[in-house]
Amino acid sequence: MESEGIVIRIKTPVGDMDSSVDSPSHLNFNDLLAAIKDVMPEATVTAFEYEDEVGDRITVRSDEELKAMLSYYCNTVMEQRINGLLPEPLQIFPRAGKTPGIRNIHGLKVCASMIVSAELGMDWLCCVPLIEKSIEVKTLCLSINEHDLQYQEQLGHGNGGTVYKAYHLLGKRIVAVKVIPLDITVELQKQIMSELEILYKCDSPYIIKFYSAFFVENRISICTEFMDGGSLDVYWRIPEHVLGRIAVAVVKGLTYLWSLKILHRDVKPSNMLVNTRGQIKLCDFGVSTQVCFNLFPVTIFAHPERISGEQYGIHSDVWSLGISFMEVVGMGSNLFFFYPPLLQPLQLLQCIVDEDPPVLPIGQFSEKFVHFITQCMRKQPKERPAPNNLMDHPFIMQYNDGNTEVVSMWVCRSLEERKSQQAQRLM
Ligand code: ATP
Ligand code: MG
Fold first, then answer.
1. N or C: which end of the chain has fewer CB within 10 A?
2. What are 342-359's pLDDT values in tens digits?
3. Per the confidence metrics, is the pTM higher than 0.70?
4. Catalytic site residue 228?
């Protein structure tokens, strides 16, 4: 892609102007701004915008933001090619220097509320005879039903359900659809319902966007924002300077949830999603996690107090944060194991409760990072950092620089590597 030319379409009030760029990797912000000024000599253009896969406008004001836009575009082109489509030009929207009027950046209207009740599905009624009152789930005005979705591929399978990538025909966007079978206990069904309410309440750049939910036969489908980088559990030994930026977003996401009095309860790499724009978002918080805990309670992300039956709190999320980051920097390295491998489930539980918490090997990681992880994984819950202390920790402060490009480049590179490895395996 680096060596291939691209076409940039400058959208102006009087029409579109296409401009081909032979070597996008050498393009800089000022050159592009100069090209825009040539096309729009009357206006004082200081920045421009592009649209992401869900139609949100992203502003570009610097070389770094330009690079993030190009790597996002590069990935979109790859996806279009894989799907047999001709790449569309990169569309940019010049922005005048003066503050624009109030605008709806998301292009979405919060409107109708969706009543999730017996009225919406007889099967639901049959399955949930004990739900006395209907539960109202307000949703963004992106009402989705099964017929509007073109399922493309399975993204993964967890303990609660299966996640698919799908194209929403009406909304013209890719979404992730988590399909959860409903022939489960009433308690569990209630938990899933309240997860929907939690999703609706959340509005943060660090939390996955909830679009809609619907029922078909014995399953519920929950449609959310699709993250083209997938989850952190499939990445290979994340470098510390990348993980630092990821940690900032995860801590901000958790702090946001905690401010709404929501505990995540299932902080782990597979519930941290990334995209080629360099965004990091948390998913699967709240309730369906209870399902997983009941079915598969024994994982290395379980914290001591969970096992010994003490109260779950913010500190428990903090422990899981620590061990998740340990996992993603060491994954695949065989350099260290937190706990002896291949333990029987009960032995693993015993280890987590009895043994000293695992520590990162000193020398291979920065002192700030080792300290951060050690603090998060203090055995006594109260000794772990409180939300404010997490944000103020030197490791988090060091990487709280808003540099999305680092993560964006790393995601794009990793995806390309993964694709070429898959291609080699097929040869
Ligand atoms: P658990 O069921 O214990 O939470 P899990 O997180 O691995 O385990 P799921 O939540 O069902 O299982 O997710 C399965 C996989 O689907 C994830 O590992 C992730 O790679 C992918 N996935 C989930 N949500 C999205 C999304 N919004 N965008 C892209 N990929 C996603
Ligand atoms: Mg999950």
1. C
2. 666 667 677 777 777 878
3. no
4. no
